[in-house]
Amino acid sequence: MQVEERALCELLRLLWGNLWLRPVRQRQQQARDDAALLEQTEELAQTRQRLLRRIAAILSQTWVELGEGATLTDDEGLALMRDLLLDDEADCIERQREQGWALVQAYQRKSAAGKYA
């Protein structure tokens, strides 16, 4: 009888401990998940900033920015920017095709109205 009581007490202690620790472990796991997500977000932000700086550096050397003193033609600059985008995300251009079409249409409407003339 005494062995059964000890076994029962030990079992209850383990169950109570698990019930009490489960929320603690869940919060700890959630904190680890949140930290990992934050790290991924920061890495993505850094990657995007680096990409924007590189695109700006390329654009700064094109005819549209420098005119006759340009070291890159606009076509060469566009090709370099395209390569950078595709290196970052292989399908990024395809995913933005519809938005690009909408932007072109908006630009053309504003040009026709004389806003970009």
Plain-language structure description:
The protein is mainly alpha-helical and 117 residues long. It has two domains: 1-47; 60-117, no CATH class. The protein contains five helices and no strands. It is rod-shaped, with a radius of gyration of 30 Å. The model has no long low-confidence stretch (mean pLDDT 84).
Write the SSE topology.
Elements: H1 2-59, H2 63-66, H3 74-88, H4 92-95, H5 97-112
Helix pairs in contact: 1-3
Q: How many E strands?
A: 0
Order of helices and strands: HHHHH
Strand content: under 5%
Helix content: over 70%
Radius of gyration: 30 Å
Structural domain count: 2
| First-to-last CA distance | 97 Å
Query: Strand pairing plus helix content: what structural class?
Result: mainly alpha
Q: Mean pLDDT, as a whole number? A: 84
Q: Main β-sheet, in a few words?
A: none
The low-confidence runs, each spanning 5 or more residues with pLDDT under 50, are none
**Which geometry do the CA atoms define?**
rod-shaped
Supply the number of helical segments.
Answer: 5
